[in-house]
Amino acid sequence: MNDDFSDQPPLSRSAKKRAAKAIEELAATLATMAEADYRRLPLNGLIAEELQQARDIKSHGARKRQLKHLAGLLREDDESREQIETFIADLERGHRQNTAGFHRLEELREGLCDPGRCAETLEEIERTLQSVDTAKIHRLAKSVQNSADKRAFREIFRLLRDAESGQK
């Protein structure tokens, strides 16, 4: 009879190295994270102190050593590491959603500025963004189409962004 509690084979050396490298990259991500995001991190205790110290260090060699130390602490504390990984995944998802929304608004603006697609895009905007002043957007789009007015081009985007944020 086998006394092992796990039926899984042990990790190969390469798999262990990849896992260790991933945790070191996580530590580096934490150290270079934007201050606003850093403040919201679900950290406490020794890991929080060591991370703050890593963020404060300016010397390349000392910072690298501190990040390796932090990675070691993260390897030992699975619960904290999982919380941090979840937090970072949520941040990245939010950034992707913001970027996708930004690209959608740019696409709408491009459609408005293209004479062949302007009417179709204006109808789509009326359906999806009810709070937008379509007459003003149409006037701005005509200005861009006729004279390549860069101010109007930027103003269209602002109006679309404000209308979209007003609906959320």
Automatic annotation (TrEMBL):
Question: Alphabetically, which GO biological process terms does the record hold?
Answer: ribosome biogenesis
Keywords tagged on the record? Cytoplasm, Ribosome biogenesis, RNA-binding, rRNA-binding
InterPro entries reported in the protein's UniProt record: DarP, DarP_sf
Answer yes or no on keyword rRNA-binding: yes
Where is it found, in Gene Ontology cellular component terms?
A: cytosol
Q: Does the keyword Transmembrane apply?
A: no
TM regions (residue ranges): none
GO molecular-function annotation terms?
A: rRNA binding
Q: Which residues form a coiled coil?
A: none
Q: Which SUPFAM superfamilies match?
A: PSPTO4464-like
Q: What is this protein called?
A: Ribosome-associated protein
